[in-house]
Write a structure and sequence with these properties.
heterotrimer, A alpha/beta, B mainly alpha, C mainly alpha, A: alpha/beta, 12 helices, globular, C: MetI-like fold
Chain lengths: 327, 325, 306
């Protein structure tokens, strides 16, 4: 597809640890169109954040992208030098993180931290950049921005800090915003405000968003597409409607059963039992086999192949194969 | 084995076992675990061996030597290292090996005694402060703050000056005849170091007790109906003892350091009793001609402090359960 | 913030008061009369001298006189060096100590901090291992051992540096190395461990995600956070260099106050001992206050505590 902004193909990422090699990502492929919002969901350790850090080339020192390609805006990111990658980060791709309390440097003012990336990526000088920073703060809804610019992170509340993070990520009008669980650490009311803000800015700036979360409600709220990850692989992806109304993978179904709904009556929420797989010795077959209620013999032996059931909606599950063959 | 298609797609009928939820490594007691980790730390174990050796040498060395530390051998003055005198002899014809070994007794005893005094004062003071909390705590901690901001070495020196004169008089009394052998210098070193270095220990003990009182796992243990004794044994002791032991361990080299410093400036043990610091100081005058006189005591101090430091570091790594990988 | 400073200052003053009091009573706890090292003085002369120094007055009166004099920065008169005011001694000898001290502290910071950064950046590589081996040795070898060994090897044997005195900066190199060897090692270990910790912080990831160069990430974002512990260590560092100078000045024959202090102890020149102790205490407490202020300026979070 020509108008894809980001295309990830067959990405494998590992971490070398004392305990052994951790296979964090196994064959991850997905794409994002221009102006599109994609939700990446999955539980902790499923590889959501690792995927994003692989894109940004921000993996910890012991993390390595083993193979696969990441094409962003027709550039193969793995071919870029570190310097070119720096010019891309914060400029064409902005990123915000989970915990706004620790994501800002405590010993520099907000203004200082905003201005430095503007100065780095644009031709603006410091005073122009400062003006720009004021506008940004205004845009993300921080009152009296001139005054706030001179303050330190500890003088801001959690929600305000996340607004600052968003302002920072958007400072150079990136084509893609990666938001790694931007609301997890915030109060529910603040969460809603931040999400509204993101929806708003997406419209205004026409950028693409990758929203990492384990909150499916959030995904339904702003994303057009959903990628479901489990154990370092993509188990299902499709449009938001596909995923919510026609889930294919038992894990996706399980996730959906964990969301409370108003019309549930006295039905119980169904947790998915068991633990995520050990990524040092990943299972030979499907990573979900241990916890899957409809597991079959083959699931233990072979990795399921990702197959599309219709354009843009597919899952990696043997049930699908079995169903289509009518076993 | 080749499975048929039908077999491959047969549903798995299995009992859900909860094996994944069982901890993956066998649980060990706190001390067992710490000891295991310590044993894996080669540097720390080597340092421990060195420390044990130094202790043994200090205790038995002077007994086994044919010379005594104060014995002046006529005609054998200023000899370089030889088979008969491995560390040489000084200008008065005294065997340096036995003097260095005797110095080890002094230094180690300073380390140990100062630690015991520190530990006692520190645990009592910190314990009371942390246990009562509130007003008592804030007053006691203000006092500690003030003592803390007083330059320690300055007061060790001042205390030494005062104590030595006092003790000289006291030791003349028959009641203290037993202590006379130790000499006023050594006793005042014990006291001066013991009385000034306890502050950090008190702070640590107090901080531990205060924070442990508030810890959620203590509350949790109480909620689960654990008895006070059990909480003490299972939670408080392992968690505060670790840092107390580590602090103590790292205090020993500090004390030895201070002793050698004091002896070096002439405030330590009384001649002819040798200490590493005073031996180094004595050697200063003849350094150009008799370098070995300085070398051996200096090596002894450095190796001992190094061994204690490395062992203390290893102990800290082993006793800190949060470092558990 | 201003209130916090005032509070700290009042606290320092109170500490000083306590120190002066302790010093006074400790010195007066010394038994016998202060001339007992000079034997066989006729009692009449002793009485005369005691009267001259006010030692015949009641202790409480002496104490208040001393407090008053200390306020005027008057530390009395040397008992050994008859008639010489302790103030004169301090003004003559302290500049020598201060010069050496400033030089040493500069060395500590300019070698210790880069060494720690290097170690942290090369964590677990050979550069780190080597630096940490040196640093571990450094905190284990007493300053006087370093002093005597370098003096002998670099000064006497190799003749690279002058062996005694403090005429030029060149003369100060060996004593400064001896004084700063331990603190350099300590600072290197301190900076390494805090840098390693800081580099794992979320805000470092944020800085990288903004596309800042590695240089800016490390020398701006990580460094300012990792040298905070060094700032807290400045107080003990100054105290350490000061007390270290007691032996270093003797070894290198530098006419500093430290050497004079040690001599006064062995000479039982009590007014000098007391005067210099109080002078040092005042100096260190004020330095600690200055460090506090510096810390407040560097770490914006402190203001909250007010």
């Amino acid at each position: 597809m020509k108008n894809n902004l980001l295309e990830i193909n067959n990405l494998y990422t590992t971490f070398r640890t004392y305990a052994g090699k951790v296979y964090a990502l196994n064959n991850v492929s997905f794409s994002i169109g221009k102006g599109e919002a994609v939700g990446v969901v999955g539980e902790s350790g499923s590889g959501k954040s690792v995927t994003m850090l692989s894109i940004m080339r921000l993996l910890a020192e012991n993390g390595f992208v083993e193979s696969g390609s990441i094409i962003f805006d027709n550039k193969n990111l793995s071919e870029l030098t570190d310097k070119q990658m720096q010019d891309l980060r914060g400029n064409e791709i902005g990123m915000i993180f989970q915990d706004p309390m620790t994501s800002l440097n405590p010993v520099f003012t907000i203004g200082n931290q905003l201005v430095e990336s503007i100065v780095k990526h644009t031709k603006l000088n410091r005073s122009e950049a400062k003006q720009k920073a004021v506008e940004l703060l205004k845009m993300v809804g921080i009152p009296s921005p001139e005054k706030r610019l001179k303050q330190y992170p500890h003088e801001f509340s959690g929600g305000m800090r996340q607004r600052v993070m968003i302002a920072m990520a958007l400072s150079c009008e990136p084509k893609l915003l990666i938001a790694d669980e931007p609301t997890t650490a915030l109060d529910v009311t603040i969460q809603a405000q931040i999400i509204e803000l993101m929806k708003d800015l997406k419209e205004k700036l026409n950028m693409s968003i990758i929203l990492i979360t384990h909150d499916l409600g959030l995904v339904a709220d702003i994303c057009e597409k959903v990628v479901v990850m489990y154990g370092g692989t993509i188990v299902e992806q499709g449009t938001t409607e596909d995923i919510f109304y026609n889930p294919q993978h038992p894990y996706t179904k399980g996730l959906l059963k964990c969301i409370p709904r108003m019309n549930m009556g006295r039905e119980r929420l169904k947790p998915i039992e068991g633990q995520p797989p050990d990524m040092i010795n990943p299972p030979k077959g499907c990573p979900f086999v241990e916890r899957c209620s409809s597991a079959m013999k083959i699931c233990e032996l072979q990795k399921p192949i990702y197959t599309e059931i219709k354009k843009g909606h597919g899952a990696a599950c043997w049930l699908h194969e079995a169903g289509s063959k009518g076993v | 084995m080749q499975l048929s298609r039908e077999e491959l797609f047969k549903p798995l009928n299995r009992q859900r076992d909860n094996k994944a939820e069982v901890a993956t490594r066998p649980s060990l007691t706190y001390w067992g675990d710490a000891w295991k980790r310590l044993k894996q730390n080669k540097v720390a174990m080597f340092s421990l061996a060195v420390i044990v050796l130094i202790f043994l040498a200090a205790i038995f060395g002077p007994m086994l030597s044919p010379y005594s530390y104060s014995q002046q051998i006529r005609g054998e003055e200023n000899l370089g290292p030889s088979l008969q005198h491995p560390f040489g002899t000084d200008s008065l014809g005294r065997d340096m090996l036995v003097r260095v070994l005797y110095g080890a007794r002094i230094s180690l005893s300073v380390g140990v005694v100062a630690c015991i005094i520190n530990l006692t004062i520190g645990i009592f003071y910190g314990g009371i402060s942390g246990y009562f909390g509130g007003r008592v705590d804030s007053i006691m901690m203000r006092i500690v703050d003030i003592i803390y901001s007083i330059p320690t070495m300055l007061y060790v020196i001042l205390l030494m000056v005062v104590l030595k004169d006092r003790l000289d008089n006291l030791l003349k009394l028959p009641v203290f005849s037993g202590l006379q052998a130790a000499g006023s210098g050594l006793i005042s070193i014990y006291l001066a170091i013991g009385l000034t270095y306890w502050v950090s220990m008190a702070r640590i003990v107090r901080g531990q007790i205060l924070s442990l009182k508030e810890q959620e796992y203590v509350t949790a243990a109480k909620t689960l109906g654990a008895s006070s004794f059990r909480i003490l044994v299972r939670h408080l002791i392992p968690n505060s003892l670790g840092s107390i032991i580590v602090t103590t361990m790292l205090l020993i080299p500090d004390a030895i350091f201070t002793e050698s410093f004091l002896s070096f400036i002439g405030l330590g043990v009384d001649a002819p009793v040798p200490s590493w610091g005073s031996l180094a100081n004595d050697a200063l005058g003849s350094i150009r001609t008799h370098f070995y006189l300085l070398l051996f005591p200096s090596l002894a101090i450095s190796i001992t402090i190094l061994a204690f430091n490395l062992f203390g570091d290893g102990l800290r790594d082993a006793l800190d359960p949060r470092m558990r990988k | 913030m201003f209130g916090y400073m005032i509070k700290r200052f009042a606290y320092s003053i109170f500490t000083l008061f306590v120190i002066i009091t302790i010093t006074f009573f400790l010195m007066h706890a010394i038994p016998g009369n202060v001339y007992n090292s000079e034997k066989n003085l006729p009692p009449a002369i002793v009485e005369n001298i005691r009267a001259k120094y006010g030692l015949d007055k009641p202790l409480s009166e002496q104490y208040f006189t001393m407090l008053k004099n200390t306020l005027k920065l008057d530390f009395g008169i040397s008992m050994k060096n008859r008639g010489r005011p302790v103030n004169d001694i301090i003004t003559e000898h302290f500049p020598h100590s201060a010069r050496l001290g400033i030089f040493s502290i500069t060395l500590c910071l300019f070698i210790g901090i880069p060494l720690g950064i290097l170690s942290a950046l090369k964590k677990d590589k050979w550069q780190d291992r080597l630096a940490m081996i040196i640093a571990t040795l450094g905190v284990s070898v007493p300053g006087f051992v370093v002093a005597v060994l370098t003096q002998y090897l670099l000064g006497v044997k190799l003749k690279w540096f002058p062996v005694i005195g403090d005429k030029t900066i060149y003369h100060l190199i060996l004593p400064a190395i001896a004084l700063s060897f331990l603190p350099i090692s300590f600072i290197a270990r301190l900076v390494r461990s805090s840098m390693v910790e800081v580099l794992e912080q979320d805000y470092i990831r944020t800085a990288r995600a903004k596309g800042l160069s590695e240089r800016v990430v490390i020398y701006k974002h990580a460094l300012k956070n990792s040298i905070m512990p060094v700032v807290t260590y400045l107080g003990p560092l100054i105290a350490g260099v000061l007390t270290g100078s007691f032996v270093i000045e003797s070894i290198f024959n530098i006419p500093g106050l430290g050497r004079y202090f040690v001599t006064s102890i062995s000479n039982r020149d009590y007014t000098v001992t007391m005067g210099v102790t109080i002078f040092y205490a005042v100096f260190l407490v004020l330095m600690n206050f200055a460090v506090d202020v510096l810390y407040t300026v560097l770490d914006p979070r402190i203001k909250l505590k007010n």
